[in-house]
Fold each of these.
Amino acid sequence: MNKPVLGLVVGGVLGVFDGLSALVSAPETQPQIVGIVIGSTFKGIIAGLLIGWFASRVRSMAKGVVFGLIVGLVLAFLVAMMPGENGEHYWMQIMLPGSVVGLIVGYATQRYGAAASARSRA
Amino acid sequence: MTRLSGDAIRRLQGVVELPDLSGTRYEPIEFVARGGMGVVFRVRDRDLDRDVALKVLSTVQMNEDARARMLTEARVLARLEHPGIVPVHDVGALPDGRVFYTMKFVRGSRLDEYAAARRDLNDLLRVFLRICEAVAFAHAERVVHRDLKPGNIMVGAFGEVLVMDWGVAKILGAGGEAALAPPVRPVDPPDGTPETTATGSILGTPGYMAPEQARGEPALVDARSDVFALGVLLRLLAESAAGAERGVPRRLRAIHARAGAAEPAGRYASVGALADEVIRYLTGRSVNAYREPWFERTARLAGRHRTAIALVLMYLLMRILVFLADRL
């Protein structure tokens, strides 16, 4: 499995769990849980793809983890900007897990996954 | 009356045998060692202004067979162009008719001295892999060393490895085989030291010789005989690093036990297969030589993926903290 695909898979799986965890951390969101899980999974997939793409080009655990953290944070920030039904924002509940997910995907894509093979140009 | 030690006697013999190098471009400096087929001296190459090692037949071995073997040894070594095999520079004959060849003068420590000075197992295993690379290369050239032991392996200051003394090597031919020296017969070492490569009818070193080699069955000697010796070397390195109190890890013990199996069929089929197992050990993967119980496998996998596990635990902890923060 190459690094972008690995990032996509790990990001997607963590995104599903991340979304479902809203049932525990914010039970009042239960009516919107399907939308939350879909949004969280989509966010995880995008983050995973970006972080995996970065890992296939930059071989550095430190840089990969920091890049993952930043991507996770930025995407989570964009999601957290959208207010809930009553106009409230869940900054910490969204940004903290989102950044940690990015960090984990950054680590996973640096440590595992096959690097893209060099292609000759015709 | 003071008794001389064995080492002092050998050095005196070396001085007595200091060769007459007149007519050559070399001048003698000092006796270095006595090998299976000859004596090694440190000499000065006047033309290139450098020290080299000169190996020459000892005076007691001056016969046509020995001359031919010495020449063959030099030619075999010349064929084995590899960073881990000592390179030959020149070959010739002394005024008294003895054949000699010169090679790189190797500076460094014997493998056992190096192992005693460094106790890091992974470092020693990486050195072992370099030995395997050199020996595997020789096998690919159809040459079996037959006398791998710590005294024949030098490790340089930067961890570079040189496999030396190919004097008792065996060349595996397409339709048969040829040996640089006569068949092995099991005879006790002459001075009782466990690391003496015997000359004449005795070849190889007790403790490192494969059983088929020690039994004097040259037809059975092949690459797996070197695998046996490498297994003994691996055990030596592992025990040196582990120390008596901790013991050698079971997976590593299983690897050197398989390499050192009494029957050739029980050993790794090639040096490459042995090296692969050591690489698997080094990278925390399972090894074919050892069927580990579930709890050992779990512990190994946890150790191998400890950072990933730590990250997942960190995530869960973060989730719990967020949950608790919302409740407060």
Amino acid sequence: MSVIERQTVAGRAPGGQTARSAGAARLPRRLLRRIPRAAWICALVATINAVAWSIVTPPFQAPDEPSHFAYVQHLAETGHLPSSSKEVFAPAEAVALEDLHQAEVRFSQENPTISTLAQQRLLERGLALPLSRSTPGDAGLAASQPPLYYALETVPYELGTGGSVLDRLELMRLLSALMGGACALLTFLFLREALPAAPWAWTVGGLSVALMPSLGTMSGAVSPDALLAPIATALFYLLARGFRRGLSAAVAVALGATIAAGCLAKLTFLALLPGAIFGCAVLVWRAARAGRLPSARSLTLAGGVAVLPAAAYGLRDASAAQPSANVVSGAFALHGQHTIGGALSYMWQLYLPRLPGMDATFHGINGSLLWFEALVGQYGWIETTFPWWVVRIAFVPAALLGLLCVCALVANRGSLWARRLELASYGAISLGLLVAIGLDEYLHGAQGEYLQLRYLLPLVALAGAGLALAARGAGRRWGPVAGALIVTLMLGHDLFSQLLVISRYYG
Amino acid sequence: MRVAIALAAGLLTIAVGVALTLARRPLVLVAENLPQTHHTLIMARHSAGACQAGEVLPAGTSAVRLGLTTDIGSRVGVKVLADSRVIAEGTQRPGWRGASVTVALPPRPRTLAPVTVCFALTDLNSAIRMLGLATGAHVAARAEGKALPGRMHVEYLRPGPRSWWSMLSSVSWRLGLGRAASGTWYALLLLTLVVALVVLSSWAVLRESR
């Protein structure tokens, strides 16, 4: 009897069900074993980096961290989502914020964190008080966000039972750090699919992302941005895999699950949806044309997995006091003074230098330069930045990297045309995010309030691809050398950013 | 071999950069004209400026920090005048963020008093709040000949006596405050993590380039 026949018989035997379950149980292990060791190293580096950032960043000094913590606390303590977007937090958290002088330190570079033993003792006494952790149920800005990230964070929150608010916060930050690790791992896998010709460049891109201070700082804090980044990176990876190997049933279902997870992680993901849907549609069209379309059952399953969880949350959300749907529609509501031309001009200037004839959005500076400054360093509540001379020096490596990237694209121009639909999908996802940020800014007259690098973290996989391409742009002989220099550049950027934050809070 | 040399050169550059950075003396507060406040004196939406008399410019002051807060800062020009003569001036480019702005000034060898500190806001990107303390009109800052509701908060900064190297132990100690389990072990843990980052990243680059 052949192996296949023996397996068939086993499948039909009374014990077949057990064999199938055992096989299913082994499947994740088999999949994990297929991931190269270098990808795990990238994940480990990103996790360690995020843990380092969680130490460097004082408690509640990451953007909106008090609100995100309040959301998790309320969900864990009551089993219900927060009921109000006011910023009256539960007494246990409010006392910690007060004793940490959180409001005075936030935004004010001249104010470091607490610095005396007396302040520490006062904090410890405040943390030990038996104060309410469940009322009044406010979660500030976080209240309108979907619950996936916060639900996951209830696990470390519960693990900290018996501990103080700060114990729980540290455990929650560690879970975010693991999400940072997942992001770097998925970036590596994305590069393996998107740039298959040079395996060493996967490590360059993966490590560069792992060492990015912007990823480290958000993965070292309690923020749904920590979850959104790996989910968006998974989306890029699955699309790249589908474009390279064809749309399998497994990839279709995984894409559906990723889209569902994204919708339930942060409202920002909705901006990525048009591009994601475009990419999925192209994959289905190409598979149908090649006669290799997954079964209708698989596609229905994938569609169901993508839509049903978000729809269920949407239905529940419609009856909430602070519906996310209202936040989204309110964010894009047009008022009298807004025009389509005005919106286009604003969005253009948010990312690119102003063209003649446009009314100035920014004065004395342009949006692209502000983004570059944010890329060089923007920490704490975005008030902590490098001095201007550092930004000027940073132009040199940035220009070199851009040049190398262009060289790589020119050298591979033939394959670019062949992959135009894949690139258009990535472009549509990126454009969706950039337009959403720009439109939100324009409609709210925010004047740069959303000009924060963390909002671009969903595109971190493309940044990794850009850096891997730059290394390849140095050519076959010097590529690995350029790769080593790029990794040390990212390492240096990360370490000096940590020193900057240390000097700001503890100097 | 080439990769190992590039990696070593990169790491050496970082090490030298860190050593030089830690050898610098951070700016410290020499004097401030008022207790720090978050009280809004005025809100500027267009180009604005004000002058404040009766200030003291301590010797060696190399920067002033003004109580101005905004989303994306404007250009800020500062002039220090003694007897109507400009004795120091500096400019901060637009794009700063937060609840204060620091403007570098050329240091003066001697303390000068009384001086008038003037500032001008141009290229405004969003409304700017001026923070300070409400006072009587006779001591208040003045704009276009009129008294403002009070005096603006101004801090005078100069490089401190100690380098970051000599402050390592105090910074390590402070890093451990405000935590779940306070102690300098946070600094040791951070150092261990950073060493692990360097070792792992270097090893991965060398391994994959083979």
